[in-house]
TrEMBL record:
Residues 26-169 form the Lactate/malate dehydrogenase N-terminal domain. This is Malate dehydrogenase. NAD(+) binds at residues 31-37, 57, 118, 141-143, 249. One of its GO terms (biological process) is malate metabolic process. The keyword Oxidoreductase applies. Gene3D superfamilies: Lactate dehydrogenase/glycoside hydrolase, family 4, C-terminal, NAD(P)-binding Rossmann-like Domain. One of its GO terms (molecular function) is L-malate dehydrogenase (NAD+) activity. It is an enzyme of class 1 (oxidoreductase). Homodimer. Keywords: NAD, Oxidoreductase, Tricarboxylic acid cycle. Substrate binds at residues 105, 111, 143, 177.
Length: 341
């Protein structure tokens, strides 16, 4: 009788837990006062799936939070002070942690030129996340993504809390751009253009697979390929020293967070492109790779195969793999040589 009651209580408790876990979604933004952080936080405040929005930055997060908190949606918004305890409190209980902290490019720079500054920023934030939110989905936006994602992985591994299903490099902007650029050429609605983009998030590591779209004739369109691979440069140039893409990136980051929340709340078949710990090219020494990933309550549910590609696309993939390997190794070596405090 006692055992039966205990068993029943157990069921009731786990139901209660999953019900409340469904209802409560804390999302934390690290770097929330920046060019991406502010509009991203705004979009998250407009998302009814987010119940608790935690904003952290080394400057201005309480101000941004005060501003956003006046928006008449239900979620609670809290801005945290730039202290270790502020950071820990921002992270505690988070289901999703988005990291757009770090410096952006100026004209003439590559994303890799940001490595020296951003690697240590991401490393230190990852340490705090491993400590205070080890089970959260970590979404890395800070560049160079091809290297900052391995940095987070190494930090989590060193602390024994690495879960490859919950670490994501955000490459959504590459598919957002690809669908928009194709729609401009084809005079279609970009929402109908599903362009698969695989690889990583810089230059030649960004590989659109037009042969798998409804416009296979676009394979070999050098101008379009260049625009997709170097779309970020277009914005850096136009902003003329004042930074890189922020608004389109905020939209892409908010879309990815929304997809994760939908999947966590039980929706099936939610697929997003993302840079994850992936088996696809491990035999070639590439530990992380962006491809279509089905999301689920545990994060990564299924990593899609690349599928059929043309000879031309295979050449692009080969070039991407060579660069990716170096970018990933650079992140891993950084943590080994600079473990920090
Ligand atoms: N994954 C992607 O597709 C994209 C990535 N990015 C990258 O996102 C990053 C941020 O770009 P923006 O928002 O334009 O830069 P930003 O300079 O406007 O904002 C960065 C924010 O990070 C904050 N920050 C710096 N160190 C921090 C720390 N230790 N803890 C918390 N916050 C910290 C700064 O105070 C600032 O508010 C850059 O590295 C950029 O290259 C940008 C566009 C697309
Ligand atoms: O180009 C940059 O430096 C920012 C970025 O990652 C993008 O816009 O795709």
């Amino acid at each position: 009788m006692f055992a039966a009651r205990r068993a029943l209580t157990g069921v009731a408790q786990s139901r209660a837990f999953s019900a409340s876990a469904r209802d409560l979604s804390k999302v934390t933004v690290l770097g929330a006062a920046g060019g991406i952080g502010q509009p991203l936080s705004l979009l998250l405040k407009l998302n009814p799936r987010v119940t608790d929005l935690a904003l952290y930055d080394i400057r201005l997060a309480p101000g941004v939070a005060a501003d956003i908190s006046h928006i008449n949606t239900k979620s609670k918004v809290t801005g945290y002070d730039p202290t270790p305890s502020g950071l820990a409190a921002a992270l505690k209980g988070a289901e999703i942690v988005l990291i757009p902290a770090g410096v952006p490019r100026k004209p003439g720079m590559t994303r890799d030129d940001l490595f020296n500054t951003n690697a240590s920023i991401v490393r230190d934030l990852a340490k705090a996340a491993a400590e205070s939110a080890p089970d959260a989905n970590i979404l890395v936006i800070s560049n160079p993504v091809n290297s900052t994602v391995p940095i987070v992985a190494e930090i989590f591994k060193a602390r024994g809390v690495y879960n490859p299903k919950r670490l994501f490099g955000v490459t959504t902007l590459d598919v957002v751009r690809a669908s928009r650029f194709v729609s401009e050429i084809k005079n279609t609605d970009p929402k109908d253009e599903n362009i698969t983009v695989v690889g990583g998030h810089s230059g030649v590591t960004i590989v659109p697979l037009f042969s798998q779209s409804s416009h296979p004739d676009l394979v070999g369109n050098a101008e379009l390929l260049n625009r997709v691979q170097f779309g970020g440069d277009e914005v850096v140039k136009a902003k003329d020293g004042a930074g890189s893409a922020t608004l389109s990136m905020a939209m892409a980051g908010a879309r990815f967070a929304e997809s994760l929340l939908r999947a966590a709340q039980g929706e099936k078949g939610v697929v997003e492109p993302t840079f994850v710990d992936s088996p696809l090219y491990k035999d070639q020494g590439v530990e992380f790779f962006a491809s279509k990933v089905e999301l689920g309550p545990n994060g990564v549910e299924k990593i899609h195969e690349i599928g059929k590609v043309t000879g031309e696309e295979q050449k692009l993939l080969d070039a991407a793999i060579a660069d990716l390997k170096k970018n990933i190794e650079k992140g891993v070596a950084f943590v080994a040589q600079n473990p920090g405090k």
